[in-house]
């Protein structure tokens, strides 16, 4: 089995690299097709000679495909270039500075929102149509329909402005994390709670759960071994893709709470035509998503014997 | 006039010594639905004797499955048992605590389901399922439980049982999975085995094997088997006694031989006539009972079968017939031939030697052929 699995995993990783390579080429060419450039300023345009000089300095005078292969060669040596919007550092050091902040917020958000979402979903399903179920469904609907920045505004207004319990934003103190995590996590929590509830209800109604009860198995055993185990399998496809989303940050959340994370660079890089930064962000997102899918599929196989590679196990 | 019920008694006596392990009296189950209160089971009484097979026959929705699930007190919501007694091992199952009932489920009374394909937890191995039951009900542990599980698999005819313990349900065929369900059901050597249409989801050859296996196990262990089916061939081949259900009530109950030879209730006679006949040509091959059963939310005051009956009288519409012997005395809880009909088929002179008798013989013959092919 492990041989088949290693081969499967190697295949998936290779496939992922091919996809990222193709993607990088497409993005690189598209990016250069967009009118304007990093040094095109509307109000005080640079004189033509200076423009030619600066373009030569950054290699922007060369054909796009030459630029692409130069970029690719550098990337293969872990040189991601210099961000035009912050020329005093490298892309690598910028990401190393900003991303950990986003990761801290993201990991806390995911841990809390997924845990609560699953717990609420289970509770709502087990006590279907009770007041708990109704409350969970109501909060989940709110969490799904309200954008995170609205929730953020509400939190700031209530907790900071009115009650003066928490600072409005900033970075460095643990209490500054509370509002961003709530604003950011409510959506994922709502999605997870709803999916868990639906999935649990389906399994609770299934024949094998009914028969397990008819075999005289105690309720807690039926809940954990029969219901939960099966209900959580389809959740992998919901939980997985949420992770890269949160780990790459949100401009709304980071902007609103003045968090020095990576989120804002997604917008600013496009605005400034910051080619090296755009490419670096693209690589980051593509790698994260790709890895998430590979990991989700592997987990699926672990959780459900019917999904295992190679059909007949053992 | 009395002869038919006497014959029934003799057949009963021959079929199995009567030691009642379970007796159900006046069982009532109702479902509170949006469209009104449905009485799915309405005053059902029967006994189940050790080592015998009682066939519970009737069309879909007649209450046979609900009756069976009542024995485990596992009627699905919104169903509620709201009357009667179920006496088993000296206790009324309807008045014991939920805790005590959980201890009985799967240990003293076990269920074999209709569809083995959805009956097992897909993320647990076959061995996990069996070992779990042995652990919980019999307190077995580790290797003892595992080797007992392997014994059970080999008992139900699964080759290479040690290896199969580690198989997941999806790696087994439907017939194999039903064998696993039987192994699970007999794991604790229950007194009663309820088989709810155990072969409906299986193909014909596998059906015969599974029924033969159930017969064998019943002979060895003296378990009582409650076999729910709508297949009269299965009833003829595998049941000692039969109870025919219609609209939540027992329409007729007798020994299998007696029921096929002398069906009294018009519904039973109709069912027997529905058995396909190869000796009849053209349109006559498939007989059907006209109409559909009445809505359970809106049962008529008289006999529920009256609107579909070809021998209906005014009496049938005005008063509901109770289960009684052919001479009219009401005798519940015995194993004689009982029926709930005002104008019974085999007692009316005009019906002598009619079609259903031929059908009955065919069904009996089919049942025998069945048994032979399995052996």
Question: What layout of secondary structure does this protein have?
Answer:
The complex is a heterodimer of chains A (314) and B (375).
Chain A: H1 2-33, H2 48-57, H3 64-76, H4 91-126, H5 131-145, H6 148-162, H7 178-204, H8 207-214, H9 219-232, H10 236-247, H11 251-256, H12 263-271, H13 275-303
Helix pairs in contact in A: 1-13, 4-5, 4-7, 4-10, 5-7, 6-7, 7-9, 7-10, 8-9, 10-13, 12-13
Chain B: H1 3-15, E1 20-33, E2 36-49, E3 53-57, H2 64-71, E4 79-88, E5 91-92, H3 98-104, E6 109-112, H4 126-138, H5 142-155, H6 161-164, H7 174-186, E7 192-196, H8 204-221, E8 224-229, H9 232-238, E9 241-246, E10 249-255, H10 256-261, H11 266-273, H12 314-318, E11 338-339, H13 355-374
Parallel strand pairs in B: 3-8, 3-9, 6-7, 7-8
Antiparallel strand pairs in B: 1-2, 1-4, 4-5, 9-10, 10-11
Helix pairs in contact in B: 4-5, 5-7, 7-8, 9-13, 11-13
């Amino acid at each position: 089995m492990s041989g088949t699995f290693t081969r499967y995993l190697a295949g998936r990783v290779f496939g992922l690299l091919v996809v990222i390579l193709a993607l990088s080429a497409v993005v690189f060419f598209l990016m250069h097709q967009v009118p304007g450039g990093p040094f095109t300023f509307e109000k005080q345009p640079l004189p033509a000679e200076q423009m030619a000089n600066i373009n030569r300095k950054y290699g922007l005078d060369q054909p796009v495909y030459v630029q692409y292969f130069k970029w690719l060669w550098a990337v293969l040596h872990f040189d991601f270039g210099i961000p035009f919007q912050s020329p005093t550092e490298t892309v690598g050091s910028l990401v190393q500075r900003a991303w950990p902040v986003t990761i801290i917020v993201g990991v806390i958000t995911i841990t809390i929102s997924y845990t609560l979402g699953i717990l609420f979903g289970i509770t709502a399903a087990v006590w279907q149509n009770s007041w708990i179920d109704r409350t969970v469904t109501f909060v989940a609907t709110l969490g799904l329909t309200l954008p995170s920045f609205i929730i953020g505004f509400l939190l700031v207004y209530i907790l900071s402005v009115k009650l003066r319990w928490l600072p409005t934003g900033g970075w460095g103190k643990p209490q500054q994390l509370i509002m961003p995590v709530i604003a950011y996590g409510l959506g994922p929590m709502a999605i997870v709670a709803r999916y868990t509830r639906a999935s649990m209800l389906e399994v609770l109604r299934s024949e094998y759960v009914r028969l397990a009860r008819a075999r005289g198995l105690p309720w807690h055993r039926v809940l954990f071994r029969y219901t939960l185990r099966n209900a959580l399998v389809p959740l992998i496809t919901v939980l997985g893709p949420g992770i890269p989303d949160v780990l790459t940050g949100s401009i709304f959340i980071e902007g609103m709470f003045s968090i020095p994370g990576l989120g804002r660079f997604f917008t600013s890089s496009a605005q400034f035509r910051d080619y090296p930064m755009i490419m670096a962000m693209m690589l980051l997102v593509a790698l994260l998503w790709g890895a998430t899918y590979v990991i989700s599929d592997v987990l699926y196989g672990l959780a459900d014997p019917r999904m295992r590679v190679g059909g007949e196990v053992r | 006039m009395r002869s038919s019920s006497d014959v029934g008694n003799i057949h009963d006596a021959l079929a199995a010594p009567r030691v009642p392990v379970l007796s159900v009296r006046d069982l009532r189950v109702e479902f509170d639905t949006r469209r009104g209160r449905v009485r799915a089971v309405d005053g059902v009484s029967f006994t189940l004797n050790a080592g015998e097979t009682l066939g519970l026959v009737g069309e879909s929705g007649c209450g046979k499955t609900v009756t069976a699930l009542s024995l485990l007190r596992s009627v699905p919501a919104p169903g509620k048992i709201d009357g009667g007694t179920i006496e088993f091992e000296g206790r009324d199952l309807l008045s014991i605590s939920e805790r005590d009932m959980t201890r009985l489920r799967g240990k003293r009374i076990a269920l074999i389901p209709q569809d083995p394909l959805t009956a097992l937890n897909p993320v647990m191995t076959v061995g996990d399922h069996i070992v779990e039951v042995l652990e919980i009900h019999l307190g077995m542990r580790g290797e003892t439980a595992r080797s007992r599980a392997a014994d059970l698999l080999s008992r139900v005819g699964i080759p290479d049982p040690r290896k199969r313990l580690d198989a997941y349900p999806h790696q087994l065929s439907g017939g194999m999975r039903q064998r696993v369900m039987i192994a699970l059901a007999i794991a604790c050597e229950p007194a009663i085995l309820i088989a709810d249409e155990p072969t409906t989801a299986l193909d014909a050859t596998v059906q015969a094997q599974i029924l033969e296996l159930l017969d064998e196990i019943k002979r060895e262990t003296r378990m009582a088997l409650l076999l729910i089916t709508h297949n009269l061939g299965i009833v003829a081949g595998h049941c000692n006694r039969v109870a025919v259900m219609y609209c939540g009530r027992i329409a007729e109950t007798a020994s299998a031989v007696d029921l096929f030879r002398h069906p009294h209730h018009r519904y039973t006679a109709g069912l027997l006539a529905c058995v396909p006949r190869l000796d009849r040509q053209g349109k006559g091959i498939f007989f059907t009972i006209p109409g559909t059963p009445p809505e359970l939310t809106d049962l008529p005051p008289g006999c529920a079968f009256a609107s579909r009956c070809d021998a209906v009288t005014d009496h049938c519409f005005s008063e509901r017939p109770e289960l009684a012997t052919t001479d009219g005395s009401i005798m519940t809880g015995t194993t004689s031939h009982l029926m709930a009909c005002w104008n019974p088929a085999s007692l009316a002179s005009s019906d002598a030697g009619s079609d259903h008798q031929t059908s009955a013989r065919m069904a009996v013959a089919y049942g025998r052929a069945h048994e032979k092919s399995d052996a």
